[in-house]
Design a protein that fits this description.
Helix 1 runs antiparallel to helix 3 and helix 4 packs antiparallel against helix 5. This protein is globular. It has one domain: Up-down Bundle (Four Helix Bundle (Hemerythrin (Met), subunit A)). The two termini are 12 Å apart. Helix content is 80%, strand content 0%. The chain has 138 residues and is mostly helical.
Length: 138
């Protein structure tokens, strides 16, 4: 059974992370790239936002007795296949799992300009995720 309290609490945390990321995205690209405190915070809050979405998805899938995801990206794909997310959104968010791994393990150089663009252009994907999950699960 899906624990709706867990979903609600995680969605609240996601909203908090998105608000912080929005503030960081108000910096100019130069400020963002040149200030390690700014881009370091963006990396951390983005990691947490992605992880929160993955946790929500994993919780839902585990309680729906569906196929177990092989990789983090599969969580988004399976949510799309089970009509819990629009398929286009699921496909758009799936690569976020790879970004999460990069942010967590720091095994690749992070392109700060791309990260900045993500903050400027893709935070609405997280909001669409939250809206779809709320509509389908809560």
């Amino acid at each position: 059974m899906i624990d709706q309290d867990i979903i609600v609490k995680r969605l609240e945390k996601l909203n908090q992370y998105l608000q912080l990321l929005e503030q960081l995205g108000k910096k100019t690209e130069q400020q963002f790239v040149n200030d390690p405190f700014v881009h370091g915070n963006a990396e951390r809050y983005l990691q947490l936002a992605i992880q929160t979405c993955l946790d929500i998805g994993n919780h839902i899938l585990a309680n729906r007795a569906t196929k177990t995801p092989d990789e983090y990206r599969d969580i988004f794909i399976l949510l799309g296949e089970h009509d819990l997310l629009p398929k286009t959104l699921a496909e758009k968010m799936a690569p976020m799992a790879g970004l999460r791994n990069i942010l967590v393990h720091d095994y690749l150089d992070i392109d700060l300009k791309k990260l900045y663009l993500l903050l400027k252009n893709n935070l609405d994907d997280f909001r669409a995720f939250a809206k779809a999950i709320s509509k389908k699960v809560l």
